[in-house]
Design a protein that fits this description.
Shape: globular
Strand content: 15-25%
Helix content: 40-55%
Number of helices: 19
Structural class: alpha/beta
Radius of gyration: 28 Å
Length: 470
């Protein structure tokens, strides 16, 4: 059949909609979506014919129904998808960072499906303040300080700089003008806030004298920034927060610290030795500290600013605070996360901290059990346990390494990348690491109830797959 004849025989959308072959798609997804998908499929076929493709035929209604079904299922499939994180990176930015505690997850479901006293004072019968749901817990965690919560740490530092230094100068070390994931750059945040950046020192050495020399009539504050995802080593010199605060307070200036990672307790016993808990930063003299809720804090995406009452009040009054405010789901999750710290149960209840605290031997026992279960389904699996390291992730602790036990899998073909691809395309997808020709899985970040799924997915990926014909 000639292409022109096939083009003429392409059916009209109205005719296809009346065909019995489209009855099931119409029942599942409705007339509007099916109509749009049919038009897209007709356009695609016309373009292929007009482009001169040689393999052409007159499509049937069943062919259109099949195409519509495939497109609708792909469009409406759950997304983002649940994955198994076997990388050993705990607050993995690309995989959603921290996993919420069971208590926080339950509160999110409740908050999503019910009306709440979000901004309603039940005692007064009048409008309330959504921060009231967090204030009591934050006062116990940071006695004598005030706090404000917004939608992420970038928002928190932006709000702090705007409220405290708009139109004036912010003094910051050149070595702290960092860029982290997603092209987030501290100089860009300073520009957007309306503050004027005044760089001091050099990339590797910034002394207290550099800060002092930069003070002028337009100076608003000193800014310290978390090193995040890198560390400068060698011929270096830094100014401590305590030293900087002593100078700043003598000159009537505040010190704002963008700490990012947001750990509230000492994590050194777990191998994270290059992070300072937020309360310690405040004790060292920081006037405002901003940090994330979804990194080492182990809660939902959020940004918090904690510090001097007069400064935090300025942040709360700024119009930008409303733009950046938390929604009810974030507040519900953050409240339950903070409650775990207040009650002293954070390590037991918050998955991020629980993962950090796992011993390498315990992880090794789980890894061996997963490997042996996998071998029941894929007897030719070649595996062994190896010593390795996990990482905190999320732009925190750039040098942090936590001893772990890795499950190392060798592909018979010598191509571990092939296994990696198959795992990522599985159901559920498994994200692992490939190094030196081996597939490496770190069960530190695999949730305990995912072990059986991991064995099944690993066996499926390891078994020989038939090559498709043609």
């Amino acid at each position: 059949m000639e292409r022109g004849d096939i083009l003429k025989r392409l059916p009209a959308v109205s005719r296809l909609l009346d065909d019995p072959a489209l009855a099931e798609p119409l029942a599942r997804w409705g007339r509007r979506l099916v109509t749009d998908l049919l038009r897209e499929e007709l356009d695609r076929r016309r373009e292929r014919l007009q482009a001169g493709e040689s393999d052409v035929s007159a499509p049937t209604a069943f062919a259109f129904a099949s195409a519509v079904t495939a497109k609708a299922e792909a469009l409406l499939a759950p997304s983002p998808r649940v994955v198994i994180n076997a990388t050993g990176v705990i607050a993995h930015t690309n995989l959603g960072r921290s996993v919420l505690s069971s208590a926080a997850a339950r509160r999110v479901v409740e908050a999503a499906t019910c009306y709440l006293d979000l901004e309603y004072d039940l005692e007064k019968g009048a409008r309330g303040d959504r921060m009231a749901h967090l204030d009591g817990l934050l006062r116990r965690l940071f006695p004598g300080r005030s706090a404000v919560a917004v939608n992420n740490n970038a928002g928190a530092i932006l709000l702090a700089l705007r409220a405290l230094s708009k139109g004036r100068e912010v003094v910051v070390s050149r070595g702290e003008l960092v860029e982290i994931g997603g092209a987030f750059r501290v100089p860009d945040i300073l520009t957007v806030s309306g503050a004027k950046m005044k760089e001091v020192g050099t990339t590797n050495r910034t002394r207290l004298a550099d800060y002092e020399a930069a003070i002028g009539p337009k100076t608003a504050l000193f800014l310290k920034v978390h090193a995040s995802n890198f560390k400068i080593v060698g011929f270096t010199e830094d100014t401590s927060i305590r030293e900087l605060a002593t100078l700043a307070h003598a000159k009537g200036l505040p010190v704002v610290v963008d700490w990012g990672s947001g750990d509230l307790i000492d994590l050194a016993p777990f191998g994270v030795t290059d992070e300072i808990p937020v309360p310690a930063l405040l004790d060292q003299g920081a006037d405002v500290v901003t940090f994330s809720g979804d990194k080492l804090l182990g809660g939902p995406q959020a940004g918090l600013a904690v510090g001097r009452d007069d400064l935090i009040k300025r942040l709360r009054r700024d119009p930008l605070a409303r733009v950046l405010r938390l929604d009810r789901l974030q507040i519900a999750a953050l409240r339950e996360t903070l409650a775990a710290y207040v009650t002293g149960r954070a390590i037991q209840e918050i998955p991020t901290l629980r993962m950090l605290s796992l011993a390498a031997a315990e992880i090794g026992r789980r890894a061996e059990a997963v490997a042996r279960e996998t071998c029941l389904l894929a007897p030719k699996l070649v595996w062994r346990l190896e010593a390795g390291v996990s990482r905190p992730g999320g732009g925190s602790s750039p040098t942090g390494e936590i001893a772990t036990t890795l499950l190392a899998i060798e592909d018979p073909s010598g191509d571990a990348g092939r296994l990696d691809v198959r795992l990522r395309r599985g159901d559920p997808p498994v994200v692992a690491r490939v190094n030196a020709g081996k597939l490496l899985l770190d069960l530190r970040t695999v949730l305990p109830d995912q072990d059986a799924d991991l064995s099944r997915c690993l066996a499926s990926a390891a078994r020989p797959h038939r090559q498709s014909a043609g």
